[in-house]
């Protein structure tokens, strides 16, 4: 099968990971039934993508997916709760060996660039946030790490006093938060910042340029991360260059998307590789995470979070989650999401969910849908209601007006319309 394999992975480690997954999980025992694990290589994993893979929906099947050493509590582990795609949360077990992976994933750039830094972290204090554990990856570097209360992003005077008090030389936060800081912090603080670690929202060239213009002495580390796999990859962005993404402890399989709108992009599949003797909480092979990679000369130069997911700062809102909620009501027959992504002209990502009703408008339906979304997706609630980093509107209209003034391609049912791309 055509595709690209990235990641400097030891084949013996890959085989060990597959062997442990096969021995301890029903899910992977079924997936690997026709595969000779002793002969498994990154290229053979690529060729088996159609049968050896996993999707976010599979994460709900705890009985089959969690290893016996997790289910039987044979080793200590914590469980992170991350937003669900169909109205239920996904729960991901996290072991001490996962922390080791975070440390390895960050070590290659932490030692070189973070040494001596004073980091101010604005990562959301949520158990589902990869940033909560990212500090594990910084522990090999000689740095001072300050966790800044996330509410300070809305309290300018307290924020400035805090940053001046700690004399920060680096910032670690979600793309939306860092972008807004670049617009609001005083010049003397911005001049002190030498390193910016950011991720969550797609980082475009235009956004990166604005951030670097406003932090004139800084470089950016754009981190591609997930709760399931950790700090999968990163790229370095300066005013003069943008490096391709680097992957250390994960195997990346790229397959060309069949969507004509994304001809330059490849679907991303992630394999979480363990070192010999390790036991991570969740084995993953060809995890079809739903993100797309722009590939130039066989290297990933950008990652976007489009397709069936939109990003509200650090939170993902999945189209099938909205679909599940809307279709609970017999009087709602259609919906679209109008998405305003982060841009220099739009400092907050915004989403309007427009639902179509039949007959009379049901009283309170907008508030009811909003509450169901928050119940199913706490990160969205947090980013919209507490961090104030995003906006979410629910709009109920007669069914015939749902797609009013929206382009519609013949024969293609489209639910997400992106302002600046589609409309």
From TrEMBL:
Report what the protein is called: Long-chain fatty acid--CoA ligase
- Cite the Pfam families for this sequence: AMP-binding
Cross-referenced Gene3D superfamilies: N-terminal domain of ligase-like (3.40.50.12780)
* Record GO terms (molecular function): ligase activity
Organism source for this protein? Thermococcus argininiproducens
Q: Which InterPro entries does the record match to this protein?
A: AMP-binding_CS, AMP-dep_synth/lig_dom, ANL_N_sf
Q: What UniProt keywords are attached to this protein's entry?
A: Ligase
Where in the numbering of this chain does the AMP-dependent synthetase/ligase domain appear?
A: 80-231
Superkingdom as given in the UniProt entry: Archaea
